[in-house]
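Quick one, probably user error.
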């Protein structure tokens, strides 16, 4: 009996490769040429501490035999899609990708994404159901990693609407559920934090609108079709320059701080690992130069927002914040390095 049948990605190895060649790769190339100025997969590099050829080789070796690519979360579809595409074309790695069941409104959509190596993250139900679902998902991810498979997962549930990317400890707790030692479980996962950078976020105005809706109504919930709109906007909107920056496996850091980490209790260890992931994602940011034309771009995005009681000052502040927070986090990470 297959205990993971309800959430696992479908096993269609040779057929998946054929689909990649005939459908996925051509479609991703069309998006790359038409919706982005450039799309780059970078190992270390940028303003990060990992600059040399030796650093890049170390990072490449870190994920050669499988890793957990834990990333910040900007776009519902493209975050995982670009990473999967570039790992596939550069290193022949096709990671398993997590997708929330709230995005699988129709059976054919579920079939399509599970066929394309997506596993299901179940998010509905009460507290008991949530714990049970988390245990089930954790077991499946550990099962995949035990077989040397790579996976993608966001550092948090839902996108960071304000651009302030912080790892949710609950994600780490879910990944390491079981009776084992937390640090040993993290080591087995072989977490390689990845910074995802879009020069422009096509969904920025939708995120700003949602923030005002939540501000004005604490009981506000998304209407049917809003996730689908965000998915479509994220896929087909202009993104400017796109950079994915893979940073070293956390296992190097675990080795370097073994004694102090082992002296902590489990909750302290979780917090320490979360902060380290944040550091590596933040120091891996691509910092874009923005001129006066960027303010014009923001005004254009603001004009797209159509809602009752539109608070333009608040919305513009939120739009600016989305692009400022990564810069502030990058600068803070540089100071931490020093």
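Nope, works fine. Designed sequence:
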């Amino acid at each position: 009996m297959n205990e993971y049948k309800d959430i696992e990605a479908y096993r269609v190895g040779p057929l998946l490769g054929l689909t990649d060649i005939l459908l996925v790769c051509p479609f991703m190339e069309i998006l790359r040429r038409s919706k982005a100025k450039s799309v780059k997969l970078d190992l270390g590099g940028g303003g990060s501490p990992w600059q040399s050829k030796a650093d890049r080789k170390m990072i490449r070796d870190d994920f050669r035999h499988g890793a957990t690519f834990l990333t910040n979360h900007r776009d519902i579809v493209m975050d995982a899609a670009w990473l999967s595409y570039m790992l596939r074309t550069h290193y022949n790695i096709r990671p398993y990708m997590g997708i929330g069941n709230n995005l699988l409104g129709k059976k054919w959509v579920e079939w399509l994404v599970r066929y394309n190596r997506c596993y299901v993250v179940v998010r509905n139900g009460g507290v008991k159901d949530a714990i049970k679902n988390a245990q089930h998902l954790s077991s499946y991810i550990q099962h995949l990693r035990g077989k040397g498979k790579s996976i993608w997962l966001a550092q948090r549930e839902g996108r960071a609407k304000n651009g302030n990317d912080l790892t949710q400890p609950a994600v780490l707790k879910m990944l390491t559920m079981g009776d084992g030692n937390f640090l040993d479980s993290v080591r087995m996962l072989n977490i390689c934090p990845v910074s995802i950078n879009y020069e422009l976020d096509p969904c920025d105005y939708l995120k700003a609108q949602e923030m005002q809706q939540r501000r004005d109504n604490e009981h506000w919930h998304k209407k049917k079709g809003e996730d689908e709109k965000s998915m479509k906007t994220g896929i087909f909107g202009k993104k400017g320059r796109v950079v994915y920056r893979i940073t070293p496996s956390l296992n190097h850091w675990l080795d370097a701080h073994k004694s102090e980490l082992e002296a902590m209790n489990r909750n302290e260890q979780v917090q320490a690992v979360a902060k380290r992931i944040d550091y590596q994602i933040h120091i891996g940011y691509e910092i874009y130069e923005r001129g006066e034309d960027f303010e014009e771009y923001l005004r254009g995005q603001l004009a797209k927002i159509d809602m009752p009681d539109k608070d333009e000052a608040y919305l513009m502040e939120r739009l600016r914040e989305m692009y400022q927070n990564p810069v502030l986090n990058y600068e803070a990470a540089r100071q931490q390095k020093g």
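The chain has a mean pLDDT of 92.
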